[in-house]
Amino acid sequence: MIEVRRLRVLRALADHGTVTAAAEVLHLTPSAVSQQLAALESEVGQELLERRGRRVAITSAGRLLLAHADTILAEVERAEDAMRLHANGVNGEVRITAFATAITLLVAPALTRLRETTPGLSLVVRDAEGHQGITQLLDGDADLAIAVEHRGSPRPDDHRLARIPLYAEPFVAVLPPAHPAAEPPGPTAPIELAALAEDDWVMPSPGNPIRDVVMLACEQAGFQPRIVHQSDDFRAVAALVAAGAGVSLVPRLAVPEPTLALIRPLPDPAPTRRVYAAVRASRADHPLITATLGVLTEVAEKL
């Protein structure tokens, strides 16, 4: 008989690539992970893994088992939810991860509203960059993630996830007050991105999906930005720009107010940050999650 907990170990290894990384996610030792995988191979009577240097590759038999494992783990989670609901009605906790702007614009207003509409729901909020929340969701460390579409996002056909679009916002140019773009035709006139090719840039850190969007926009405008300063905090970005350290592109709703920096729109089609909510498909119909998603969608429609 296949042990369900060992299927979780195999899934964690497939997602994270190494025994050490899987062990960290599962809060086990690497040796315990290796023992669980060896026991799973013994249970199914086939090799599921092969060593490739420091990494472990999944064999064809392992990939076949993973396809069934995702279904099994989803059904186990549904069964656990059903038992919790039977015992507690609709009372419970929803763990939500979101990046800072989404916490301010979406999660905090939704939390206030949910206290009125769903008093049995307790929201637990964790700050996570847009690319980290999905990992935490798939690892089981969160029940709902608010994330940003980017080149490294999970594929739309990933059957483990259900996605709900929330809002899209254009990027704007953030410039020092004395920048030449501050001159006529005026602060509301669009500025061509190519006009910033010779400036120093303030950019998010590598791995941040916002950086990917900005880098792609600059490439399409025909230049590679000269990155001098880096920060993932948009307040810090705006402060550095206002101090004359360089220029930047920032999602419009993330621009701190007030700011001494000059804000200029970009011509259409401007690069856009697309924000969505994601839940594990196995929990998409959970009453507390559907209630949370409903209020988040209502708040997003007003942005």
Shape: globular
Oligomer: single chain
Poorly predicted spans = none
Taking all Cα atoms into account, the compactness measure Rg is 23 Å
Question: Can you count the helices?
Answer: 9
Relative strand content:
15-25%
What integer is the average pLDDT?
90
Keywords:
WH-like_DNA-bd_sf; seven-stranded mixed beta sheet; alpha/beta
Brief description of this entry?
Residues 2-59 form the HTH lysR-type domain. The chain is built from nine helices and eleven strands.
Description:
- The chain is of the alpha/beta class and 303 residues long.
- 41% of the residues lie in helices and 22% in strands.
- It has helices spanning 4-16, 19-26, 30-44, 60-88, 100-117, 133-138, 209-220, 234-242, 287-301; strands spanning 49-52, 55-58, 92-98, 121-127, 144-148, 161-175, 200-203, 226-230, 248-251, 262-265, 272-280.
- The strands form three sheets. Strands 3, 4, 5, 6, 9, 10 and 11 form a seven-stranded mixed beta sheet that branches. The protein has a two-stranded antiparallel ribbon with strand order 1-2.
- It is globular, with a radius of gyration of 23 Å.
